[in-house]
Amino acid sequence: MSNNLPLMPYIDAIKASITAHADEIAQLDQAIGDGDHLINLQRGIEALLKNSEELEQLEFSAALSKIGMTLMSTMGGASGSLFGSMFVTMGKTAKGKTLDVTGMTEIFTAGVESIKARGKADIGEKTMLDALIPASTSLKQSIRNEVELSAALEDMKKAAIEGMESTKDMLATKGRASFLGERARGHIDAGARTSQLMLCAIADLIIENH
Ligand code: ADP
Ligand code: MG
Hints:
Bound molecules: adenosine-5'-diphosphate, magnesium ion
Radius of gyration: 16 Å
Number of strands: 0
CATH topology: Serine Threonine Protein Phosphatase 5, Tetratricopeptide repeat
Order of helices and strands: HHHHHHHHHH
Mean pLDDT: 96
CATH superfamily: DhaL domain
Helix content: over 70%
Low-confidence stretches: none
Largest sheet: none
Strand content: under 5%
Number of domains: 1
Distance between the termini: 14 Å
Shape: globular
């Protein structure tokens, strides 16, 4: 497979999905955060689109690293440094890898691990990790079971959606929502929702082009 995968269609698809759910995302972070998650994310996406010509010239691993550094320097918020470190790690991991389903899953899983390390968080703490970890686990399981690509991606979407929904009843132990104690219960975590939306947008585009 070429190591010059076109990344911009994925960024466009992510932007479309975030835009379609903008009000909902803003409200989620207003309820148990400080209300800036949507704006942080939009700032990051716009910075990537501004750099699209440069990103298109780069080989896959270098493009991922560049995305990470761009997100770190433009996005802001906890999510900016977490997504930034995810992409920088994915860029390092992608070097020399075959970009098939197994390789892509290894790259994604390394990115999720870097969020766990940087945020000192794990599943069940009402964060973006509650969408990302189940998605990574689902993909690894599909590879073990030799599930066909589209079905594997549909399963991954389901795992991300269930994980995102599971944050609703959780107490938060990391991030701003952790200051709210019991008052955080009953609200879905904004970062879990946006991570799930982005994963679904990417999966749908891969399925469509498959
Ligand atoms: P901030 O919290 O600085 O205002 P954002 O609003 O952009 O930044 O992002 C908030 C999201 O970041 C939360 O909804 C949560 O999903 C995620 N988050 C916050 N802290 C952590 C952490 N330590 N580990 C993983 N994710 C985190
Ligand atoms: Mg916030």
